[in-house]
Design brief:
Strand content: 15-25%
Structural class: alpha/beta
CATH topology of the largest domain: Rossmann fold
Strand order of the largest sheet: 3-1-4-5-6-7-8
Number of helices: 10
Largest sheet: 7 strands, mixed
Helix content: 25-40%
Number of domains: 2
Order of helices and strands: EEHEHEHEHEHEEEEEHEHEHEHH
CATH superfamily of the largest domain: Response regulator
Number of strands: 14
């Protein structure tokens, strides 16, 4: 592992979070929308106490990584990726290994969770499985204490001299209420560039994790092990009120799976006079069986 043993007692540790770019041949929503990296903003909020945290969104400004590394030498770096950006994520990690060889490198997201072997690379120290908020916070705490061995942290695959070694599985969360709100100040430099198709100013928000259904076309059953975790409507209401953008994309697939929860949230927003536009994906059977719920949100 590339990380040297360093103690940070009384010293602020530097954490860099990177949203990697898409490759030149990538197709899909990347060409008609650009949304904030919610996972990194949430992780950043979880580790900001006692640390200096920065976020580089290379989807918006690809050159920001090298510019940042010229004046900010991270002690820990976290990179998120899905399948279509996994090659670019590894290139980012290799660049950081070359320029900051003692930095502890961590990768997470859907693709690393499902295919950790794809990240058996000298540039990658740790692969995070599943929900990474608590895992990354534990990694940072251990690193700050001078750890070079992370086998005590659940939910990891660790690169070693004898290959990849998994640690104990981390339980799937049953709620997301313990997660902090995303720290959107980390993306202040980029926010004016976030949009969704015809919406020129857009924010993202996550209301749930996973899905209890088993659609064969969807990776959610594998990623979440058919578990479904939600948030308290009061916390969702509070986060919506804190968002400045007029348009919010609910980016989870299970937003309306729990009908009563979303009816409560919708009524809270109406009663408070919160006027925003929303986009989400809803199962057809949910719409058919609950027409009044969709009217409430319309």
């Amino acid at each position: 592992m590339g990380a040297a043993r360093i103690r940070f007692e009384g010293v602020v540790m530097r954490v860099l979070l990177v949203n990697p770019p898409c490759g030149p041949r990538t197709i899909g929503m990347h060409h008609i929308s650009r949304m904030e990296p919610l996972a990194l903003e949430t992780i950043g909020a979880a580790v900001k106490e006692g640390n200096e945290v920065r976020l580089v969104d290379m989807l918006t400004y690809p050159g920001d990584l090298l510019a940042t590394l010229k004046q900010f030498k991270p002690d820990v770096i976290g990179v998120t990726t899905e399948a279509v950006r996994s090659g670019q994520a590894k290139n980012v990690l290799r660049t950081i290994r070359r320029l900051v060889p003692d930095c502890l490198t961590v990768v997470g997201g859907h693709h690393p969770t499902l295919f950790p072997d794809d990240f058996e690379d000298p540039a990658v120290d740790l692969v995070v499985h599943g929900e990474g908020v608590e895992t990354f916070a534990e990694i940072c705490a251990a690193r700050k204490a001078g750890a070079t061995n992370f086998e005590h942290i659940a939910g990891l695959t660790i690169r070693s001299d004898v290959g990849l070694k998994p640690t104990e599985p981390r339980p799937i969360p049953t709620t997301l209420d313990h997660h902090p709100f995303p720290d959107r100040s980390l993306t202040a430099r980029y926010r004016k560039h976030y949009y969704y198709i015809t919406e020129p100013s857009a924010a993202g928000m996550r209301l749930s994790m996973g899905c209890e259904h088993s659609c064969t076309f969807c990776p959610n059953p594998l990623y979440s092990q058919n578990c479904f975790a939600t948030r308290d409507p009061r916390k969702m209401f509070e986060e919506i009120c804190s968002i400045q953008e007029p348009f919010i994309y609910f980016c989870d697939n299970g937003t309306f799976h729990e009908v009563d929860r979303m009816r409560t949230l919708g009524q809270m927003l109406l009663d408070a006079g919160i006027k925003k536009r929303y986009l989400t994906y809803v199962r057809a059977d949910t719409i058919v069986h609950n027409p009044n719920l969709l009217e409430l949100w319309a």
